[in-house]
């Protein structure tokens, strides 16, 4: 069956990095991957064209796609839009919510060639392989009520941190099953010493644990988890947490790998439909300069092949091609170090493509 793949380049460096990832996808098609690829507008680019960050045409295309590849959205150009619902980031949150993409997988893997590019000592990160499982369609990013309003003569801002048992249970199951396929260690990160919502989170994780007797479940407060991630990251195998804590911890984990430009992600719903995107944003500070690292986006294509299109051998080939390019000493500026050759976004794309063709 021919699946549809939708590419949403987005804003800032988004079009530069998705252009390189699209070339890899096209190479997969040339090798027999049976997909129909189309493009759409999301975020600031969609706002500029249609006055909406998530036009209905894009949403319809997204619903029909088995896999969506996103660059990134947002940037200073749109930060002044007063109506929050029209901001680029709301377009992204809208796709996640409308498609029910609750299971966000963010693997932080330190390629051996990049151990020296991490801000931590190489021995702390060499061989690192963590999977952060982040709940993506609930929690404080979506909770109601929310707003900014006048109370007692001054403005107050408020959001609601809320999770239902069923939301916690379904992300818990994703994480337990992921741990079963890996080193069988699951650390649930919460703030159960302060927040009722995470007392419930912890209770549900404990309730699930007997169903996965081969998995060792532990709990950690999020402040300690942030510290432990930079103190001794290799203690973690799978980490499961809510939407906001996962957002923050995955950016911290990114630096363990050398750069946020290395971290891909998958956001899945129950039917295996998924959106795939680098964990970073639109990097307005380097947009248009041709220096962004496209590897997180290219590795996101590999995740799409593995999790939504069921061609894991092709995914492994892309990952091996990335490894080969790093072996050859090619680096974008964010991961450059002594003795490596600094290349542009498109040169990095060329090299991964050549390595892929030779695999
Ligand atoms: N999934 C998405 O679309 C996301 C969008 N954003 C949006 O992106 C915009 C910028 O946000 P920031 O907080 O600056 O985060 P950011 O992730 O865009 O950038 C943080 C730093 O990392 C660098 N960086 C990011 N990706 C890189 C890459 N591929 N290669 C080399 N360097 C890279 C940037 O140059 C910057 O110095 C904001 O409008 C924000 O809302 C932020 C996070 C996620
Ligand atoms: C831009 C936000 C909507 C989310 C974010 O930072 C992320 O998903 O990593
Ligand atoms: Mg983030």
| Main sheet summary | 10 strands, mixed
Mean pLDDT: 97
Bound molecules: 1,4-dihydronicotinamide adenine dinucleotide, 2-OXO-4-methylpentanoic acid, magnesium ion
CATH superfamily of the largest domain: Isopropylmalate Dehydrogenase
Q: Determine the fraction of residues in helical runs and give it as a percent range.
A: 40-55%
The SS-based structural class is alpha/beta
**What is the spatial order of strands in the main beta sheet?**
2-1-3-12-11-4-5-10-8-9
Our count of domains comes out at: 2
CATH class of the largest domain: Alpha Beta
Computed over alpha carbons, the radius of gyration is: 20 Å
One letter per element, helices H and strands E, the order comes to EHEHHEHEHEEEHEHEHEHEEHHEEH
| Helix segment tally | 12
| CATH third-tier fold name of the largest domain | Isopropylmalate Dehydrogenase
What proportion of the residues form beta strands (DSSP E)? 15-25%
What does this structure look like?
Mg(2+) binds at residues 223, 247, 251. Residues 4-352 form the Isopropylmalate dehydrogenase-like domain. NAD(+) binds at residues 281-293. One of its GO terms (biological process) is L-leucine biosynthetic process. Substrate binds at residues 96, 106, 134, 223. Helix 1 links the parallel strand 1 (3-10) and strand 2. The mean pLDDT is 97. A 10-stranded mixed β-sheet has the order 2-1-3-12-11-4-5-10-8-9, sandwiched between helices. The chain is 40% helix and 19% strand. Helix 1 (14-30) crosses helix 10 and helix 10 (295-307) runs antiparallel to helix 11. The chain has 2 domains: 1-102 and 269-359, 3-Layer(aba) Sandwich (Isopropylmalate Dehydrogenase); 103-264, Isopropylmalate Dehydrogenase (3-Layer(aba) Sandwich). The protein starts with a strand and ends with a helix. The radius of gyration is 20 Å and the shape is globular. The protein has 359 residues and is α/β, with parallel strands linked by helices. Magnesium ion binds next to helix 9.
């Amino acid at each position: 069956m021919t699946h549809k793949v939708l590419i949403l380049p987005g804003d800032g460096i988004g079009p530069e990095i998705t252009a390189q990832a699209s070339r890899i996808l096209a190479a997969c098609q040339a090798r027999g991957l049976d997909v129909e690829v189309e493009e759409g507008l999301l975020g600031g680019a969609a706002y500029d064209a249609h006055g909406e960050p998530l036009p209905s045409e894009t949403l319809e295309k997204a619903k029909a796609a088995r896999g969506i590849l996103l660059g990134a959205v947002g940037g200073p150009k749109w930060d002044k839009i007063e109506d929050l619902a029209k901001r680029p980031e709301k377009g992204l949150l809208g796709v996640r919510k409308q498609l029910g993409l609750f299971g966000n997988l963010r693997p932080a893997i330190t390629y051996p060639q990049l151990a020296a590019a991490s801000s931590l000592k190489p021995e702390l990160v060499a061989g690192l392989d963590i999977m952060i499982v982040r709940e993506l369609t609930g929690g404080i990013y979506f909770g109601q009520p929310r707003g900014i309003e006048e109370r007692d003569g001054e403005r107050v801002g408020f959001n609601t941190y809320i999770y239902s048992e069923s939301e916690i249970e379904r992300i818990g199951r994703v994480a337990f099953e992921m741990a079963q396929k890996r080193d069988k260690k699951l650390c649930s990160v919460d703030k159960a010493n302060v927040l009722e919502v995470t007392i419930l989170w912890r209770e549900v994780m404990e309730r699930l644990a007997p169903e996965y007797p081969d998995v060792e479940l532990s709990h950690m407060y999020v402040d300690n988890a942030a510290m432990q991630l930079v103190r001794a990251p290799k203690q973690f195998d799978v980490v499961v947490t809510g939407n906001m804590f996962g957002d923050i911890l995955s950016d911290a984990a990114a630096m363990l790998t050398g750069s946020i430009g290395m971290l891909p992600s998958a956001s899945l719903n129950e039917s295996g439909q998924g959106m795939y995107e680098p964990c970073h944003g639109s990097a307005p500070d380097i947009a248009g300069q041709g220096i962004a690292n496209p590897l997180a986006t290219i590795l996101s294509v590999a995740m799409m092949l593995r999790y939504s299109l069921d061609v894991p051998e092709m995914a492994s080939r892309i990952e091996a091609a990335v490894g080969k390019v790093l072996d050859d000493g090619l680096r974008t500026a964010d991961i450059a170090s002594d003795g490596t050759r600094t290349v542009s976004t498109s040169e990095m794309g060329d090299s991964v493509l050549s390595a892929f063709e030779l695999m």
